[in-house]
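== Sequence and structure of one protein ==
=== Format: two labelled lines per protein ===
==== Data for this protein ====
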Amino acid sequence: MKKILVAVMLLGSVAVSANVAPAISAPCAACHGLTGISTNPEWPNLAGQHASYLIKQLLDFKQGALKNATTMTAMSAHLTENEIKELANFYAKQAFPKGKTPEKFLKRGELLYRGGDYAKHITACIACHGPQGTGNAQAGFPVLRGQHARYTILQLESFKNRKRSNDLNSIMRDISSRMSQDDMEAVAYYIQGLH
């Protein structure tokens, strides 16, 4: 009877801990939060992101392909491919973050996200990132919904200035090159509240 009780207790603890962060995520939590929701608006939320996208980003950091993120290059240097997959799968299972869009960005942000800007040749974000900002894992397009606006602005600026270049077929470098600072802010704040 004692053995059965111990076995039930162990199985119960396994079920409860199925969504507990892997030990290797402890350093990640300092910037990205325990469940992948960062408290600093310049650091990305990881919660709900496609595992395949997170794996690609971590491998890009590890291989030095992303020159604009020296901290992440150092943080990923020691990770094995299995650890990268474990981290990516953990964060992918977390609930999406929820943010708000300030009223002043709502109209222009929604217009850019859903319809683009024909006169400026800015493609609508919805084409790759979907109506709810959930992206497309198979195509390699990340989840955007609930992402910090400040982080999104920084990434758009990095693509525009060619400091970041790991986008598929230069899509983001091309689109961001046509965006003004006001465009970037409007769409980034719209994305922050998208859910």
